[in-house]
Amino acid sequence: MKDAERLIVALDLPDPGSARKLVERLGASVNFYKIGLQLAYGRGGLSFADELAAQGKRIFLDLKLHDIGNTVKRASAQLARRGVEFLTIHAYPQTMAAAKEGTAGTGLKLLAVTALTSYSDADLAEAGFRLGAHDLVLHRAAQAKALGIDGLIASAQEIADIRRAVGSEMILVAPGIRPEGGERGDQKRVATPAAAIEAGADYLVVGRPIIEAPDPRAAAEAIQLEIATARG
Ligand code: C5P
User: Fold this and answer.
1) What's residue 1's pLDDT?
2) Largest CA distance in the chain
């Protein structure tokens, strides 16, 4: 795989029209896109994922599935037919096992969300969890590995610990990436592209630093260069 494909651009935009314009501006420089809840739930959102896949772009559907096993199994089987490559699910054992069953024998890779990064230890306690964020993430990472889940989403600051715990096989994808001196927005635990790669991330998800840049293509290419340099 080319280092440039380790950059996944988050298409956090309201509709396919604006997403299409951005994809055109990024041109051949970016080949991997993440479509999340905002775009997917809008009119034409999932068809736009199909459109990009038909153009040969790699697609990550960040739909964070979680329901009873039977529903997750059927939903993930449906998504596997769309020709996308990554799908997120919440890291509950039943959900992971069901998605694994639903996607068996397909090319769709499952990425588990261990704990949402907006949850602090206090938020998890309020929601009834016994473990704090760090322990919960490692507990669920081990369960995901045991269930044969392909990869995990993790904040760049947790990547090194997770990589040590799960080994080299699992795909680790890090959001919350900010080039040196960039605006943080609402992200609290950020890392530079180089730091995330050095910690063991395989892919970086980047939204606002690219999609809100005056020159998105130049911003994407600068991050790709930083990734390639960090990988040596
Ligand atoms: O704009 P920004 O680079 O912060 O976008 C990061 C993307 O990664 C968003 O689409 C966000 O939903 C997603 N994400 C995240 N933190 C997680 C999981 C996903 O920021 N823990």
Assistant:
1) 84
2) 47
Query: Among 57, 64, 73, 109, which one carries the catalytic annotation?
Result: 64
Show me where the domains of the chain are located. 3-230
Q: What is the DSSP string of 73-113?
A: HHHHHHHHTTT-SEEEEE--HHHHHHHHHHTTTSSPEEEEE
Of 9, 82, 12, the C-alpha closest to 47 is: 82
Average pLDDT over every residue of 202-227: 97
**Residue 64 annotated among the catalytic residues of the structure:** yes
Mean pLDDT of the chain: 95
* pTM (predicted TM-score): 0.95
Alpha-carbon gap, residue 110 to 85, rounded angstroms: 9
Pocket test for ligand 1, best of 205, 208, 210, 212 (most atoms within 8 A of CB): 205
42-87 confidence digits (pLDDT tens): 999 999 999 999 999 999 999 999 999 999 999 999 999 999 999 9
Q: Which two tokens stand for residue 164?
A: 């040590």
User: What is the rounded CA–CA span in Å between residue 35 and residue 62?
Assistant: 6
Atom number of ligand 1 nearest to Cα 208 = 1
CA separation, residue 147 to residues 84, 96, 134, 164 (Å) = 21, 7, 20, 18
Indicate whether residue 36 lines ligand 1 (CB < 6 A): yes
In a 3-state reduction of DSSP, which class is residue 136?
A: helix
Give the CATH superfamily of 3-230. Aldolase class I (3.20.20.70)
